[in-house]
Every structure is written in C-alpha cells, then in structure tokens.
Design a protein that fits this description.
This protein is an alpha/beta fold and 366 residues long. The chain contains 13 helices and 13 strands. α6 packs parallel to α7 and α8 runs parallel beside α9. The longest helix is centred in the first third of the chain and has 24 residues. It is elongated and about 100 Å long. It starts with a helix and ends with a helix.
Length: 366
C-alpha cells in the first residue's frame, strides 16, 4: 500500500510537471503564479491523502466454509467464530454449502475472489475438499481444517477435538454399566473422517470385550448423513426382526435422537443404553427424561476461538500458537490443536453444560 501511494504520488507530480512544461514549450504563455500555486496545493493534498490511506490498517478477511447448519451445534460454531474474528479485528465471510461438495468448491472460489487472507473449512467431503486446498494454495491462501480433517492434501492446519478419545469416552461409559451384551454401532457418513475416528475409539474399548466373548456387535453401520432419519432407518430395520439389544452408540446426538424414535416404537426407550455426542439441547433433555444415557460435550467455544485466533495470526503473517501436535492426513503431518471433550450424564448436567454457559438451565428443565 505504501509503495502504491508513493508511486501514485510520484506519477501525479510528474503529470503536473509534464503538463506545465508542455504548455511552456508550446509558447502558450507563462501560467499565472496563482494557477501554479493551486496546482502545487492540489498535488500536496493528493500526496497527503495517499499517505493517510497507506497508513490505515487493512482488516484481514477470514473465510469460513461450512457444511450445513442442520445439526444444532454448527450454528453455535458459526456465531462464536464470527464473534471472535470481529473481536480480533478481522472480517468474517461465511458460506454454507448445504452438504453439497460442489457448491462448497464454488463458495471457496467466491471467497478467494473476494480477497480472503485465510480459509477455515468444515469440509462437506473429506476427499473432495482437497481440491479446495489446492485452489487456495494456488492463490496463496492458507487453509485451516475445522473439526473435520481434510484428507490427502497439503493441508496447512487442523483444529478439532480428539475424536478417537470421544469414541473411547462413549464406549467406556456404556461398558462400565453393561460389560456384556449386544451392542449396536451407528456411525456418521464416510465422507466425514470423524466417523472413522469415533468408530476407532469405540473399537479400542469394545474389541477386547468382543475377543473375550463378553460383547457381541450385532449391527455396525455408517449412515449417509448426521441426521435423525438415518439412525431411525438403520435401527428400526434391525428391530423388526431382532429384539435383543443392550446398548447403542451413535456418532452424534442427531443420530441418537433418531435411535430413540426407533426404540420408542418397540417399547425399548430408556431400557437400552444410548450414547451420543455434541450436547445438543434435545439430547440433554433426553438424558433428563431417561431416554439417553450420555452425550459428549465438546468445548465448542474454545474450538471456535482457537480457530479464529489461528486464522487472524496467519492472516497477519504470524505462526499460530499451540499447534503442539501433528495429525497424519494421508499426505503430510499436519500441525494441529486437539481439544479434550467430557461426558455429560444425568448427574453432572449442571456442572458441565450449564456451568459452562453452553446451555441455559431453563432451556433444559422447562
């Protein structure tokens, strides 16, 4: 900016001098002193204006590409992220893809054309989003993958919760209550790497019990979307011909709510252990009602703030702090921040989501 201002001011000065000299060469006559004084005055004003413009701090633009807002938690992520970016002096530009990978690619191009300094992405598809990373790098825009890992590309940074640990928390809690019996696993879509990570956490706990013969995994399916209808479809289809189930572990609370609907149809709600994650309001209400055993509270405020902080630092040419581990995305070891989550059950609701201000007490109990 300063270089542009200097060049422009120099050009204006040269232009004025050239015009005066040209007029003098053509013997139009000497210009009155008042006109020369006026031209000099205009030149000084333009020069000072350009200097002032160049000294203004340009706010960094941070693009936030999201999958969808259908699941409750994502609207909180969006609001918290926008709030923090603004607080740090940046301009957040948010696009929602509606779970359409091609649309997310178009939105990435749009934000790049609008001059974003960094992209933060909740990928619709773990593989297809790699093309967005490639496009961003072609335009010298760094990329942060937010709470979903983008696979097999030169991703710059990854900020998430430890999803393997979340899966372990879910399985550990249920197996402490029911160390034997029939378990059903309903994972998220294969387009989201978190679904694999969660299942890996489940199996870290369940496999030794399966090997001992204490637990049988009678159904193990990935859903097409992180939505209630998916779990309802999967579980109700199973329950038509099978009545023996002791525990259901779901990839998120939306899936868990669909599982509850299926269990209710077969008079099993509250009788079958059920785990979800995200600490959605309805999930916590389901825990209070006895239809869901636990959910997992992810520190979404800390997650959104960490991503916003990193984005602003990157946009300002600084290295983000606290990237103290790396995660292999199939292409490279990506610098990462992985935050820890916690179990929410009927005994600790007030000490977790309410105390943290994540959900209001009246929203749960009213």
């Amino acid at each position: 900016m300063k270089r542009i201002a200097k060049t422009t001011a120099h050009a204006i000065t040269n232009l004025s001098d050239t015009r005066v000299k040209s007029m003098a060469v053509k013997d139009i006559g000497a210009l009155p002193a008042s006109i020369i004084k006026f031209l000099n005055y205009i030149g000084v004003i333009c020069f000072l204006g350009l200097i002032a413009l160049s000294s203004c701090e340009v706010k960094p633009k941070v693009g936030f590409l999201m999958d969808s807002l259908e699941v409750e938690r994502w609207d909180k992520d969006r609001a918290l992220f926008e709030e923090k970016v603004k607080e740090l002096g940046g301009i957040p530009l948010v696009e929602i893809a509606g779970s359409n990978a091609d649309r997310q690619m178009e939105q990435a191009q749009k934000l790049i054309d609008e001059g974003v300094d960094v992209l933060v992405i909740v990928p619709v598809d773990l593989e297809k989003a790699g093309a967005i990373v490639k496009l961003a790098h072609k335009n010298y825009v760094p990329v942060i993958s937010y709470d979903r890992l983008i696979k097999n590309c030169n991703l710059d940074y990854y900020i998430s919760t430890d999803n393997i640990n979340i899966g372990e928390l879910q399985a550990n809690y249920l197996t402490k209550i029911s160390p034997t019996g029939n378990y059903i696993l309903i994972s998220g879509p294969t387009s989201d790497y978190n679904a694999y990570l969660l299942r890996l956490g489940w199996m870290n706990v369940l496999q030794p019990l399966v090997d001992k013969g204490d637990i049988s995994i009678v159904l193990d399916e990935f859903s097409n979307f992180w939505l209630p209808d998916e779990a309802y479809r999967i579980l109700s289809s199973y329950l038509k011909d099978n009545n023996d189930v002791d525990a259901v572990i779901c990839g998120n609370d939306a899936l868990a709510s669909g599982a509850i609907a299926a269990l209710q149809e077969y008079n099993k709600a509250g009788k079958v252990l059920l785990a979800g994650q995200d600490a959605d309001i309805q999930a916590v209400r389901n825990i209070v009602a006895g239809n869901q055993t636990i959910t997992i509270y992810k520190p979404i405020e800390s997650l959104a703030y960490a991503a916003a902080n990193a984005a602003i630092k990157i946009a300002n040419g600084e290295a983000p702090s606290n990237m103290n581990i790396t995660v292999n995305n199939g292409k490279r070891l990506v610098p990462a921040i992985l935050l820890q989550a916690s179990v929410v059950n009927s005994q600790n609701i007030k000490m977790t989501v309410i105390q943290e201000g994540y959900i209001g007490e009246q929203d749960i109990f009213n």
